[in-house]
Amino acid sequence: MTAQKKKICILLAGGTWTLAKNKEVLMVNQEEDVPAWLNTMPELNILADTKVVFLSGEEEIAGPALWEKMAKFIAGQAKNYDSFIIVSKVEQLILTANALTFLLQNINKTIVLTGAQMSGLYLRDKKDLAQSLIANYGGFSLRANLINALQVATETLPRPSIMFGSRLVLGTKAKLERQKNNYFFSSLDNDYLAKVDFGISLKSDLSYPKKATKIFSKINSKLLIVDNSLADDWSGLKNLAKNYQGVLVKMQRESLTEEQAKIIKVLDLPVIFYHPVYLNPSKLGIHLLACSWEAAIVKTLWVLSNFTKTQDVATQLASDVAGEFLNI
Amino acid sequence: MMIYFYSNGEQAESKNILHYFKKAKIEVLNNANKTKSAESLVDIEALVIFGDLDDQASYFMALALSQNKPVLFLPSKVKYNVSQLKNWLSSPNFKEKITVKLWQAKTGFGDLANFLQTLDKDSGRDMIHLKYTLRISPKISDYLIWKSKDVNKKKADMIREIILQMMAEDKAYQKFLQEKFKLKD
């Protein structure tokens, strides 16, 4: 061997579908499932000294409670590992990557997220899709994704990033797309950290952010998400909002209707208007611009969990806290 | 047959190995030549690593094994960490897929030939997936139609069986197969 192999911790939180030698579908839904699952991927230890830790099964939704658990584990174990890989459900990878970006700001550890093309517990409901993936691609792509994730996890990546298929993209820039039953991640500003063909070509000069490390433990705030399209009924919004800490409005139309503006005016909680590019000036709420929709949701959850004064909320939302602002 | 050759070993020996592949008419993709005619490792039949098992070589090895492709590792140094390699080789997951032979100028090409010979006999090469356009006369067509009905077989199956039988009975071809990778200077 050449240099000492890196120590990499693989956290399992759904998205673990793989095929055994007998073509049986294996997934990790509880800790006891790990050894059999791991047996299908003996090659992982060629690349690094790996340890697999079970966090949650295929049934659990990757939401704020799980993100807090992940962040707590990584912050607590950071000194014991060179890098961390999160295996989770493909549909939730972007939100999870964003959550870790805000919770573990500038942690100076490489964190890579990946998963299988399919997730969930019930094979019966997805039989046709599973068969199509097996016939066309030989499985659910987890083994290749994990090998690629391990390879990039030995490098310095600035923030939590998603390795899936042939691309490595920052979680804050990622967009989930689907083509012919296949998920893939594109970058909102067409900037990729790495591409895979024969080998992995990593972008040069990648480094950890130079800002001070800030670890947060809370992201589990009560956020009401609405949009201002005419299809979204706001009639019950005033009463509903009483149970929440803030309202995030996705601006589908350029401005609010008079009726919508009246409702917003009487709400006694922070109201955040989101658009990826431009918002008309308004004093009705706080503006959140220039980031992905997933980053907007997670950032708002994080801000509301950690800042109580409206002015602080506004300041944080206007700042590029964790590299989430896009240059598009 | 297409293989991926990854080398970080001595350049002169690498060139000799590439020259050997060329003479043996093996299509080779390698890390020194960036020209690619395959999309990814999925398209190649085997991986040959010469030199040291560095990070990149380990990556290719893991990827090849995950796709059930055979790997020939030719370490160029005696001081290699043999105990770890032995661990891998004794693992039921790898022992059939990884071959490790210390590279020596005298025996190295023989080891390569044996590996390629094994690949050539691999059951994967019996898979029927290559298309071949065959233009025939109406007379031959009439005969194929009549014969396929007579023996109750598809025309394509019948032709394949005839060719397989010819191959098996062709002593000169069998001799060629035995020696095709044992090249003389």
Strand content of chain B: 5-15%
Beta-strand proportion of chain A = 15-25%
Q: Tell me which oligomeric state these chains represent.
A: heterodimer
Biggest sheet record of chain B:
5 strands, parallel
**What's the pLDDT, averaged over the residues of chain B?**
84
Count of separate structural domains of chain B: 2
Radius of gyration of chain B: 20 Å
Task: Classify the fold: give the CATH topology of the largest domain in chain B.
Answer: Rossmann fold
Number of strands of chain A: 18
Structural class computed from helices and strand pairing of chain A: alpha/beta
Strand order of the largest sheet of chain A: 4-1-5-7-8-9-12-13
Summarize the main sheet of chain A. Answer: 8 strands, mixed
Which secondary-structure class do the elements of chain B indicate?
alpha/beta
Descriptive overview:
The complex is a heterodimer of chains A (328) and B (185). Chain A is an alpha/beta fold. Chain A has 2 domains: 7-214, 3-Layer(aba) Sandwich (Rossmann fold), CATH 3.40.50.1170; 222-318, Rossmann fold (3-Layer(aba) Sandwich). Helices cover 28% and strands 25% of the residues of chain A. Chain A has 10 helices and 18 strands. Chain A has an 8-stranded mixed β-sheet. Chain A has a 4-stranded parallel β-sheet with strand order 15-16-17-18, covered by helices on one side. In chain A, strands 2-3 form a two-stranded antiparallel ribbon. The mean pLDDT of chain A is 91. Chain B is elongated and about 65 Å long. In chain B, β4, α3 (82-90) and β5 form a beta-alpha-beta unit. The chains are: A alpha/beta (328), B alpha/beta (185).
